Amino acid sequence: MKDAVLDISGLTTTFTIGGRAIPAVQDLDLAIAAGETVALVGESGSGKSVTSLSIMGLLPRRVGQVAAGSIRLRCKSGQTTSLTGLDPESLRRLRGNDVAMVFQEPMTSLNPVFTVGEQIAEPIRIHLGKSHRSAAADAVRLLGEVGIPDPERRAKQYPHELSGGMRQRVTIAMALACDPQLLIADEPTTALDVTIQAQILTLMAKLQAERSMAVLFITHNLGVVAEIADRVAVMYAGRIVETGPVQDVFDHPRHPYTKGLLRSVPKLGEAAQLKAQGRDLPTIAGNVPSLRHLPPGCAFANRCELATESCRAAVPVLEEVSSGRHARCIRWREV
Amino acid sequence: MLTYMFRRLAVGLAMLLALSVLVFILLRLAPGDPVAAYINPSAPLSPQALAELRARLGLDQPLPVQYLAWLRAALSGNFGYSIQRGGVPVLPLVLGRVGPTALLMGTGLVIATVAGIATGIVSAVRRNSSLDVALSAVASLGISSPAFLTALLGLYLFAVKFHVAPAGGMLTPGVPFSLTDLLAHLILPACLLSLGYAAMIMRYMRSSLLEVLNQDYVRTARAKGVREVWVILKHATRNALLPVITLIGSTIGVAVGGAIFLESVFNWPGMGLLLVDAVSSRDYPVIMCATLITGAGVILVNLLTDLLYAVIDPRIQVSK
Prior knowledge:
The complex is a heterodimer of chains A (335) and B (320).
Chain A: E1 4-17, E2 20-33, E3 37-41, H1 48-56, E4 64-74, E5 80-82, H2 88-94, E6 99-102, H3 116-128, H4 132-145, H5 151-155, H6 164-176, E7 182-186, H7 194-211, E8 214-219, H8 222-228, E9 231-236, E10 239-245, H9 246-251, H10 256-264, H11 268-276, H12 309-313, E11 319-322, E12 325-327
Parallel strand pairs in A: 3-8, 3-9, 6-7, 7-8
Antiparallel strand pairs in A: 1-2, 1-4, 4-5, 9-10, 10-12, 11-12
Helix pairs in contact in A: 3-4, 3-6, 4-6, 6-7
Chain B: H1 2-29, H2 47-57, H3 63-75, H4 90-125, H5 130-144, H6 147-161, H7 179-213, H8 216-223, H9 228-250, H10 252-266, H11 271-280, H12 284-312
Helix pairs in contact in B: 1-12, 4-5, 4-7, 4-9, 4-10, 4-12, 5-7, 6-7, 6-10, 7-9, 7-10, 8-9, 9-12, 10-11, 11-12
């Protein structure tokens, strides 16, 4: 992709466990342009969060490492930097500055012993070199921008004095403090009430439009994907299995896993109907294979109705099925 | 805040009262007779004179009466007179020993806290490295070595063998007071006192910090681009200190026991030495007063720790 803010190609991230290198992410290609939101979707353990930690350079030390591929980021200066080749100190200077992250658990991702104002001001002082006073003023302004009423008073409060939704607004303010080029949101609404979820999504969309940031939105909630993302990449057992514009993928999935996921989303009326008929909600039979014992072929084959011998022989390639759409399935035409 | 402190102080007074009853009863239960201190072995007293002496000291009264008499006098500030030291008033005698003991314990605690926290941080950050293993081994040794062993061994090594520290006392007799002289006498017993304590603090700090380093907010700090050294010293350590402070506050009473021992080994003119002397000669008034003053000190330090806790952790509000 031209002008991509984030351009990942061939990323393989492994975890060394008991002397064995176990691939958590394999051969991942992903690009995000300025102002674009790409959703990374998958079940727990599919490699979504490992992808984000690989970008941030926050893989657990001595255990996780980027084994292959490249991650390139266009920084605020306009220069493109390869994140995989950077030394830890240069990577630290980019973190919170050119690329920032919002985490899943607003209850635990803020430090309990510092005021929220101080926690927002910290990256401003570190990366923009502002004084305590000026950074504190910026923190109050940011709290206002993320929709927290009475920001002067709130800035002096501690995380435990704020509700979950408020805290997530604080972590968003913290991530946006230095106007990053890329924002990674790792399940930012999963821990919130449904009504608060909608507010946070609206807020994120608004802030993104104002700043034309690239956003990588990690979630397992397909409803959230439909609401916020331009494009979606579906991950399964460490690999992207399908990618494309959200509407296309949702309307015509080209991978059996995507199709199964979409079918498994309970719809209000339908769920009640099924219950009345005494039938179970639709699910995908079986479990995600362990990353330690991945099958030689398609990792989804054992749960797939369309699986054949050739599916189990070799990992299918990510094929272009139409313009801007790819699927990792040899029988995508029949899905 | 004020009401909280008043309530804590009231509870502290009640505890002191209970302590006085306990010590009073325990003393009377212990074998030995305080009157023995009055007797000149070369000129034994007649039974009649002994009875008179007993009556004068109030030792012939029933226990509750004795206790109430003691309490009434104590409440008016009169803690009685030393039986052994020829009728010296007890309170000034004991209060005069508070300073040296506070100096020794305070120095020991500061050394233990600083050393324990610093080595705990190093051990946690470099966990499973050879440095961590070495520090943990030293800590295990420090915790499991009894005070009588470390005190005597330290005394032998540093004072007798290498002559780097004086063997005892607080000041060199006959020499005008100087700070260097005091410090030279202080450093060895203070270090020995801090040994086991530092080891305990180090182990707590290590495990507490390891737990904190796995918290989400530490990852958040890294994601913000905070330098690793500040991630540990600012974001993680302040949270990791909370249980360590509780430990320091709640085990201060144990440290008093260690101090008593070191004082008698190093002939340090503090409360411990006084107590040991008083116990061996059944000097009831001195024991009562010294125990209560020590108890008051421990209770006060515990209160201060709780207040410090509220300063470090904003989630704790002492006013409630």
